[in-house]
Design goal:
heterodimer, A: about 325 residues, alpha+beta, Immunoglobulin-like, Cytochrome Bc1 Complex, Chain D, domain 2, 3 domains, 5-stranded mixed beta sheet, about 20% strand, disordered C terminus, B: about 550 residues, mainly alpha, Cytochrome C Oxidase, Chain A
Chain lengths: ~325, ~550
């Protein structure tokens, strides 16, 4: 049993060392503060215990002492705050060229889609030494994608994307937990992060693939008739989507937003919310008509036609992508469609 | 506690306990002391219900597999453990029992400003409590006490609305108690009882009452929104209808973070009184301790989103809330330092209340310092929603708040009941609670950093977590014994305890200047205060063992 009894989680990402360093610093600082307080309490309690005939000495207080023991902890707090913020910005800032993986959470499983087209459930294969960015959304309630060995966690919300990233440093199999309570089988919403050597990973990612995600997206784009309005020649009734990703977009109400994943997603599901300047509000909502996986595929496709060099994967066979369009299996009576 | 014959109380004077008998003299009383006892009985009942749920949770976690109860049952157990303990025990605990009993006594008033509203607040508590019991007996709730949307609004089929209404009603009981205290402390102080002469227990309750008044309506509004969302699908929190699930979390924590201070501030007030009495000293830095209570109440409203660092908030918002969380930690640190300094050159007695106060100091310090870990953004990402958080808030809300509550119950028991509790048993219980508590919750810090998520029914995927869970469960049984003991010997002492003198601890404070138990209107003649708080230079050592002769 004791073989199974580590007191420290494995360190398997580049972020883990940063988090552990701050944690150890805090253990030392707080350990010293605890010893200091306990030391004084125990010493005073013993030294000044009741003795018959000896009276307590009344002391009003001391502003100098109050200032000292406010200022010193405050300075220590600020060091912790600043260090914590630095680590947090590392955790929350994915490198620009990270490999993108889409994650869809639902009660009670994790569905993973790689750009190359590989799909997994409750497993995520990643290579050692490569930055991986997870673009995550939920089909139902809030979940949280937590990998203790990587020291990262991010809630996964319905209705929008959240992002988390890591670079694995050690091959192995690590726990994946759902950390936000999500109902009956919350504790069953666990899985494995499989970190492989690059060669092994290449073999895995290319084996039995169904074609790239963006190709699935292109097919859905055609099937839903998006191209009728979103033509590539600027004559369409909807904006031309080529090259739009990552660029600022002028809205009808005067605002300017960046066309990121969340914006594209919102335009598909709630087209009226942030309408592009100069276009009529004629696009219907696709809320309830497309699954989260299909939205991901569409977003991946729009991103691919915005990439500076033409995406090769876009030519992949469309028939293979058909499996991406599995109908949405959301049947919750209390929901309004 | 052998079988002894009952000791009749030698004091034949009329007091609030023996003035009237009969059910109605209790159920229709407007005496703040009797209402305090009504609350004492009610919250003790809920404490043991919540404790029973806790015991089942710990038993389930003894083994990695889910084998004691069903998954849904487990989810309801931790939900109801949280709801019962937070809303029906911790929030009313010290304010509604000790505060109710002591606020008028300590400031030299005959009663609270609104005695009938005080009784109403107890009835609201009971109505809410009955609704909660009905809800639990007819199915319960499985959302966790945090009710996160959209799980609570669109997905679960359990009794959200009923539980929400129970909390809504009991919230008004909390608001009314806060209102009563604020008005009483402003308007009903005895002549000479200036703000700077108030016991720090009163300052702590004043700060608590402000939070109750300003914070509780927000949770009430939030509950109404959840109910409306469930019934009418308004789309407040549902993203499919344009709502925002994070809005729920902001609203929920805007109350529920300050609620932690509703639980801990009164406990700090109790501990301040105890430390002063048993070191026979004026509190070091009176005004700093007083204003730190107010600072906690104010800053406490500005840190709610530190529960949401991984929820999908902007990094800049997180930065602000992390900074403010360190700001709110400071007044708590100041209190700990002042309590410690009060011991210096004192004349320290180790009676049971003081042991509880020492226990409070230890557990609150650990709870507070682990809060620094959670407020550090980079670490919070890893440890939030794990057992690290569970351990942290139990150190504050159970280690801190309940230690203070028990310390206060022992300290004022002679005043409340007119009897002395058995000192040996009480010291033993304090020790058992301290050991049991640490054995239960310290392993959870380790579990949390290792990555065990909270609210997990089954951890067979990660059997490496079992050893620490077994330790924790073992500790919980010890802790359970520690909590049962005081109930047993308090009840025992009501009949067999030695009669208490008016001031068995030789403590400062107006509550000790009237008889034990006090008469219905507290003081035979209105006291006039001419001394500062904690004037221990004028008081001799406690002479608790010297039982007074019949008068």
């Amino acid at each position: 049993m004791l073989n199974n009894f580590p007191l420290w989680p494995q360190q398997a990402s580049t972020l883990a060392g940063h988090v552990d360093a701050l944690y150890i610093f805090l253990l030392i600082v707080c350990g010293m503060m605890t010893l200091l307080v306990f030391g004084f309490v125990v010493y005073f309690a013993a030294r000044f215990r009741y003795r018959p005939g000896v009276r307590a000495e009344q002391i009003e207080g001391s502003t100098a002492l109050e200032v000292t023991w406010s200022a010193i902890p405050f300075l220590i707090f600020m060091v912790i705050f600043a260090w914590g913020a630095v680590v947090y910005f590392k955790e929350r800032t994915p490198p620009a060229d990270a490999t993108e993986v889409y994650v869809v959470a639902k009660q009670w499983m994790w569905k993973v889609e790689h750009a190359e087209g590989q799909r997994e459930i409750n497993e995520l294969h990643v290579p050692v030494g490569r930055d991986v960015k997870l673009i995550m959304t939920s089909q139902d309630v809030i979940h949280s994608f937590f990998i203790p060995a990587f020291r990262i966690k991010q809630d996964v919300l319905p209705g929008r994307y959240t992002v988390e990233w890591f670079r694995a440093t050690k091959p192995g199999v690590y726990h994946l937990f759902c950390a936000e309570y999500c109902g009956t089988q919350h504790s069953g919403m666990v899985g494995d992060i499989v970190v492989q050597e690059p060669a092994q990973y290449e073999a895995w990612i290319n084996g039995g693939s169904t074609g790239p995600l963006s190709a699935s997206g292109e097919k859905i784009f055609a099937e839903l008739g998006c191209a009728t309005c979103h033509r590539s020649d600027a004559q369409g009734r909807g904006p031309n989507l080529k090259g739009v990703f990552g660029k600022p977009v002028q809205l009808e109400d005067g605002r300017t937003v960046t066309a990121d994943e969340n914006y594209l997603r919102q335009c598909i599901l709630d087209p009226g919310a942030k309408r592009v300047k100069g276009f009529q509000p004629i696009m219907p909502t696709f809320q309830g008509l497309v699954s989260e996986e299909q939205v991901n595929a569409l977003v991946a496709y729009i991103k691919s036609i915005s990439a500076s060099k033409p995406e090769e994967g876009a030519k992949a066979s469309a028939s293979a992508a058909a499996s991406a369009t599995a109908p949405r299996v959301q049947t919750n009576g209390s929901q309004v469609q | 506690m052998s079988m002894e014959t009952a000791i009749p109380h030698p004091v034949e004077r009329e007091n609030y306990l023996n003035k009237e008998y009969g059910v109605w003299s209790w159920l229709l009383t407007t005496d703040h002391k009797r209402i305090a006892l009504l609350y004492l009985v009610s919250i003790t009942f809920f404490f043991f219900i919540g404790g029973f749920f806790a015991l089942l949770i710990r038993l389930e976690l003894l083994t990695p597999a889910g084998d004691l109860v069903q998954a849904d049952t487990y989810n309801k157990l931790f939900t109801m453990h949280g709801m019962v303990m937070v809303f029906f025990f911790l929030i009313p605990s010290i304010p509604a029992v000790l505060g109710n009993f002591l606020v008028p006594l300590m400031i030299g008033a005959k009663d609270l400003a609104f005695p009938r509203i005080n009784l109403l607040s107890w009835y609201l508590y009971i109505i809410g409590g009955v609704m909660m019991l009905h809800c639990m007996l007819t199915g319960g709730v499985d959302t966790g006490w945090t009710f996160y949307a959209p799980f609570s609004t669109n997905f679960t089929n359990t009794k959200i609305v009923e539980a929400g209404l129970a909390i809504f009603v009991v919230g008004f009981s909390s608001i009314l108690t806060g209102l009563n205290f604020v008005v009483t402390i402003h308007r009903m102080r005895a002549p000479g009882m200036t703000w700077s002469r108030l016991p720090l227990f009163i300052w702590a309750h004043y700060a608590t009452s402000i939070i109750q008044l300003l914070g509780t309506p927000v949770i009430a509004v939030t509950i109404v929104m959840v109910a409306a969302e469930r019934a009418l699908h308004l789309g407040i929190f549902d993203p499919r209808l344009g709502g925002d699930p994070l809005l729920f979390q902001h609203l929920f924590w805007f109350y529920s973070h300050p609620a932690v201070y509703i639980m801990i501030l009164p406990s700090m007030g109790v501990v301040t009184e105890i430390i002063a009495c048993f070191s026979r000293k004026r509190i070091f830095g009176y005004s700093f301790v007083a204003f730190s209570s107010i600072a906690i109440a104010v800053f406490g409203f500005l840190v709610w989103a530190h529960h949401m660092f991984v929820a999908g908030m902007s990094v800049y918002a997180a930065l602000v809330f992390s900074f403010l969380s360190y700001a709110v930690a400071l007044p708590s640190a100041i209190k700990v330092f002042n309590w410690t300094a009060t011991l210096y050159k004192g004349s320290i007695h180790y009676d049971a209340p003081m042991l509880y106060a020492f226990g409070f100091l230890g557990l609150f310090t650990i709870g507070g310092l682990t809060g620094l870990f959670l407020a550090a953004l980079g670490i919070d990402v890893h440890v939030t929603d794990t057992y690290f958080v569970v351990a942290h808030f139990h150190y504050i809300m159970v280690g801190g708040a309940v230690m203070g509550y028990l310390g206060g119950m022992h300290f004022w028991w002679p005043k409340i009941s007119g009897r002395l509790y058995p000192e040996g048993w009480a010291r033993l219980a304090a020790l058992i609670v301290f050991i049991g508590f640490n054995l239960t919750f310290f392993p959870q810090f380790l579990l949390g950093y290792m990555g065990m998520p909270r609210r997990y029914y089954d951890y067979s995927h990660m059997p490496e977590f079992q050893v620490l869970n077994v330790l924790s469960t073992a500790g919980a049984t010890v802790l359970g014994v520690g909590y049962l003991l005081p109930m047993v010997y308090f009840l025992w002492s009501m009949r067999y305890g030695k009669p208490a003198s008016d001031n068995p601890w030789n403590a400062a404070g107006l509550e000790w200047k009237t008889s034990s138990p006090p008469p219905t209107f507290n003081f035979d003649e209105e006291p006039v205060v001419t001394w500062e708080a904690y004037n221990y230079e004028e008081l001799d050592a406690p002479h608790k063992e010297e039982v007074p002769v019949a008068r």
